[in-house]
Design a protein that fits this description.
The complex is a heterodimer of chains A (233) and B (246).
Chain A (H helix, E strand, L loop, with lengths): L12 E6 L2 E5 L3 E6 L12 E4 L2 E5 L6 H9 L10 E5 L5 H10 L4 E6 L2 H13 L3 E5 L5 H4 L6 E6 L6 H12 E12 H4 L5 H13 L3 E7 L7 E7 L1
Parallel strand pairs in A: 6-7, 6-9, 7-8, 9-10
Antiparallel strand pairs in A: 1-2, 2-3, 3-5, 4-5, 10-12, 11-12
Chain B lengths: L3 H14 L2 H33 L1 H6 L3 H8 L5 H8 L12 H35 L1 H4 L6 H8 L2 H7 L2 H6 L26 H4 L3 H24 L5 H17 L1
The chains are: A alpha/beta (233), B mainly alpha (246).
The complex binds S-adenosylmethionine.
The site of S-adenosylmethionine has 19 residues of chain A, from helix 2 and strand 7.
Chain lengths: 233, 246
């Protein structure tokens, strides 16, 4: 659902986090991204304007990438103009912020398998020209490679048992050498009989066999039982 | 390059994925969910009607009979003639307004019941129009349910017939340790009259034959689309007879 919300007034100060992402200093700090399509809120997030520019609140309870930025207190290696491969795009909540970050010269290749979520993603792509929707199973690297080029960053959030293998396959095919990727690990979805920690440890050691693991970011309390693992190719 | 090519392809992908099998699955779901709603509304309506006319309610406590009987009017003087129940009810004397409210709900119940019959008929027709080879097995929504559980006709064609045989079998939630559960002999197929009507000791065998034929029919639908229903039907009858005569 895309709706317009009356702008909240008076921004005190903006502190840069990464390209097109800022801490908005109010009574509490608030993460925002530059709105690529001014006037439009994507999922009910608030809009703010300051000096002729518009910003969208990036809510950590709704987006794992935002939660990671809150907990890490730093941004990621995603820059304006980058090509991003996003696996598990869902309806595009987080995708829309990545779309803000890479801006009009960047591209977000957004892969989603479900028809229902995919439909919402397509509707979002019609409003945001830098989102390139692909309705496909992320495991089908052969199909993806017919349209997706090599990218500067891969983000994956698909909550599947074989999520690490899927991530590695896609990194092999699409991630440029020396570039970063991040994979959200949902501890519970892989194995309900293992503790969250051992599931995450296992995923990390699996990733370590293929990448340099740069960091593991616990997403509590915003996203329970989730971690984000950052790797370098 | 803008994203219009991707949007076009994404739309085509979704369009291609949505098939008559999805329609069948959605209709099965509507019918099942509709029937659940019908049952819970029936329970409440029955209780309300019992208050007013317990002597009649006690006789028509079965859902379809209840709905059918009261669809011609719920007042005691109307119903007593139809059921031969007493006119001197021990029930609570509802006002005309109370009865009016109750009749609105009863009417809704009747609509739901008609809707279900209508949808089931339409579902049978959809199967017959699209899958002539499978249609010969379609009684009591057996084929639509198998299509739904099997992931489409293609799914039924590609799975071993032993799996078709047990699709929809109730799984025991907690199997007791140290005790081997007997594996199920049939799931949805139990609803087929050939299985349901067979003596206990032959049901498993009949279900196995049916499953093999359905699997074959699904393969024909998937790979050749010819109508070979007459030949399949003949084979089915022969094999079933051989089991029953033993
Ligand atoms: C937790 S949601 C993602 C939320 C999203 N990343 C966000 O923050 O807005 C997971 C999504 O991954 C999708 N998904 C699951 N398995 C997939 C697969 N194999 N290929 C592509 N998408 C998949 C699901 O349909 C679901 O929409």
């Amino acid at each position: 659902m895309i709706k317009s919300i009356p702008h909240e007034r008076a921004i005190v100060a903006l502190k840069s986090v990464m390209d097109n992402v800022y801490w908005l200093q109010r009574e509490r700090r608030l993460l925002v991204s530059t709105n690529l399509v001014p006037g439009q809120s994507v999922y009910g997030e608030r809009l703010f304007s300051e000096a002729g520019k518009e910003y969208r609140e990036w809510i950590p309870l709704r987006s794992k990438l935002a939660a990671a930025i809150y907990n890490r207190r730093r941004g990621f290696e995603i820059k304006a103009g980058h090509s991003i491969l996003y696996l598990g795009a869902s309806s595009g909540t987080t995708v829309s912020h990545v779309s803000d970050i890479v801006g009009e010269h960047g591209k977000v290749y957004a892969v989603e398998v479900s028809e229902e979520m995919g439909t919402r993603l397509i509707l979002l792509s019609e409003k945001r020209k830098n989102i390139f929707p692909v309705i496909e199973d992320a495991r089908r690297v052969d199909v993806l490679s017919q349209s997706v080029p090599r990218c500067d960053f891969i983000y994956q959030d698909i909550a599947q048992r074989d999520q690490v293998e899927i991530f590695i396959k896609n990194a092999d095919a699409f991630l440029k050498k020396g570039c970063f990727g991040a994979v959200a690990i949902k501890a519970k979805s892989i194995d309900i009989f293992k503790s969250s920690k051992s599931v995450i440890d296992e995923a990390v050691s699996q990733l370590r066999r293929r990448f340099i693991v740069a960091e593991t970011i616990d997403l509590n309390p915003y996203q329970r039982d989730h971690s984000l693992v950052m790797v370098k190719n | 390059m803008d994203n219009s090519d991707f949007i076009k392809r994404a739309r085509e992908t979704i369009k291609l994925r949505l098939s008559v099998d999805d329609l069948i699955a959605k209709l099965v779901n509507l019918i099942d969910e509709g029937e659940k709603a019908e049952n819970s509304l029936f329970k409440a309506a029955y209780d309300a009607y019992f208050l007013y006319y317990p002597e009649a309610a006690a006789i028509i406590s079965e859902r379809d009979r209840f709905v059918e009987t009261l669809s011609g009017g719920l007042e005691r003087d109307v119903v007593c003639g139809r059921l031969g129940t007493t006119g001197e009810s021990m029930g609570y004397d509802m006002s005309a307004e109370d009865a009016q409210i109750l009749s609105v709900y009863l009417n809704e119940l009747k609509n739901m019941s008609d809707m279900r019959t209508f949808a089931e008929r339409h579902l049978d027709k959809t199967v017959a129009d699209n899958y002539p080879n499978l249609a010969i097995f379609n009684v009591n929504m057996v084929i639509p349910r198998l299509i739904t559980l099997g992931g489409g006709v293609k799914g039924l064609a590609f799975m071993p017939s032993s799996k078709v045989q047990i699709l929809g079998a109730e799984r025991t939630l907690f199997s007791r340790p140290g005790r081997r559960e007997a594996s199920p002999k049939y799931g949805v197929l139990f609803k087929h009259p050939l299985v349901e009507g067979a003596p206990q000791d032959k049901r498993g065998k009949i279900a196995k034959i049916l499953a093999a034929k359905i699997n074959l029919a699904a393969k024909i639908e998937t790979f050749s689309e010819n109508d070979q229903s007459a030949a399949i039907k003949k084979q089915l009858e022969d094999e079933v007879r051989a089991v029953m005569d033993k």
